[in-house]
Structure formats: C-alpha cells, structure tokens
Design brief:
Elements lengths: L7 E5 L4 H12 L3 E6 L2 H13 L4 E5 L5 H15 L4 E4 L14 H26 L5 E6 L12 H21 L4 E7 L7 H4 L5 H14 L4 H12 L4 E3 L2 H12 L3 H28 L1
Helix pairs in contact: 1-8, 3-4, 4-5
The structure holds nicotinamide-adenine-dinucleotide (NAD).
Length: about 280
Amino acid sequence: MKEFRGKVAVITGSASGIGRATALRLAKRGSTIALADIDPDGLESVAKELTELGAKHSIHRVDVSSSSQMEAFAGEVEDIHGVVDILINNAGVAIAGPFANQRLEDLEWLVGINYWGVVYGCHYFLPLLKRPEQAHIVNVSSMFGFLGLPEQSGYCATKAAVRALSESLWTELRRDNIGVTSIHPGCIDTSIIQSSRMKNEDSRESAQELFSLRGAPPDAVAVAILLGIEKNKLRMRVRPESVLTEWLKRVFPVGVHRFIANRWEKDQAKRELKLETKGSTAT
Ligand code: NAD
C-alpha cells in the first residue's frame, strides 16, 4: 500500500504508547482512525489530538480479550466507516517473574489480551478488510517473540504465537491482496511497565528505569509500522536489540539459551546473596 490518504485504519491499544504514536502518524498522512482501547480517558485525550490535526476519527471503548466486544466493535466500525483498509492489532500487556510463581489467572489475562485479542481482531475484521482492492494487517509482536527468556515465559509465548499467526496469515491472505506484517520493536519507553503484572514493586521500578533510560520513543515503532505497510514486509525489527536477538537465535539456536541460562543463574545467585546479607544485617 503506497498511499495512506483516505484510508481507514483500526488501531487497538491506541490510547497510549505505540498505538497512540501510530494513530498520530497515520492521521498526519491523511488516514481516518478508529481508536480502540479499554482506557476511556486515554482515548479521549488521543481523540483530542486527532481533532487538533483535523483528522477524521471514531472512538471505541473495547476490551480486546472479549470476543463479543470485538465482534460489536467490528460492527460499529462497519456502520461508521463502511470499510477497513488497515488493521493494527497493537493492544498488549506484560507479566514478569518465574513461571513457578505465576498465577494462572494472570497468565489467562495475558493470553486473552496478547493472543486472543489479535485473533479476534483478525477474525472479526477480515470480512471488512476484503472489501477494498488492497488491505493490510499489522500485528504487534516483540523481540521476545523470537526466543523464550527466563521470567518472561508467558509474554514470550504470546508474542511467538502472534509472530507465527502473522506468518500463516501472510501466506493465506496474499491472494486476497491483504498484506500482513509482524512488528518486533525492542525496548520502547511507554506505559507498559506500569500496567504489567510484575513479581514485586522493586522489579517494576528497575524495569521502568531501564525502559526510561534505554527505551526509544514510541514514534520509532510507528515509523516502522508505516514502512512495513508501504513495503508490504512480512516482519519489521525496529531497534538494534531486536535485530541482534533474532540473529542470535538463528545462528545459535540452542547455544543462546545456554548462555542466557548461565547468566540468569549467576544473577539469581547474586540476588539471593544480597537478600541473605540484608537479612543477616537486619537481625
Ligand atoms: P502501553 O501500555 O503504552 O499501550 C498499551 C495499550 O493497550 C494501552 O493504551 C492499554 O490501555 C491498552 N490495553 C491494555 N489492555 C487492553 C485490553 N484488554 N483491551 C484494549 N486495550 C487494552 O504499551 P506499548 O508499549 O505501547 O504496547 C503496545 C504493544 O507493543 C503491546 O502489544 C506490547 O506488547 C508491544 N511491545 C512493546 C514493547 C515496549 O518496549 N514498550 C516492546 C515490544 C512489544
């Protein structure tokens, strides 16, 4: 797809971060945006920015993990816009911590949003995407979709599933002139850590510090998303760490996990020693 002007783009998770940045970028290129999120205040604030840009838009309060809400959302978009040219399945959340300590309800929450949200988006919007001559689906995965990492089992699994789903759809939908791109950002400074379910508040703080210090602005992903659509790319790796992760997994498919396990075990031992020292100085 070479032209964004006059196109209708549906973006989930667009009240914040990468979704918001992509909405603004597409709006500046003349697209109409259907904003979707569970956060009503965030939606209103992005809608205000779109109004200031003079961009046509609609706002939809939707929980992507709900099949019935996603079906109703597709119906609303059809009534308002009649057609969809671009679908961006972006809404996502994270969990961190060892698998053994994780609650099943947290994993179900994660899978519901990160995986089922993408499946519902593709399922309910596909009939609308088939209407224009050409259309595009963007699914936001992660560099963690390339390999499994300790303390990230649930997140890695959902993002690998999104990558695999996108590859299958890319093949199946090519004859319908519907492109599919999976996005693998790397570290991006957004609100994701705040909404994550972390093992404790210390880990949230250190992760937030890392993301604020090292993370790229969300607009870097928006740029990659538009380029992925324009060039009909199967996948876009946004930041250098995403390219490196994918490369390491490809070149050292088993060795990379041995290396990570050794590092992780050493870090764990250091953490345990720190806790022990803290405990013994306290008594
Ligand atoms: P963010 O928290 O800023 O934005 C996520 C948005 O999704 C929020 O507006 C939130 O309200 C919305 N959302 C959450 N649950 C929802 C639900 N059930 N229904 C509808 N909307 C819901 O985070 P972000 O970093 O912009 O995340 C966007 C996507 O990018 C996610 O899929 C995330 O996994 C992915 N990603 C982020 C990074 C990063 O470093 N920030 C890296 C790789 C991938």
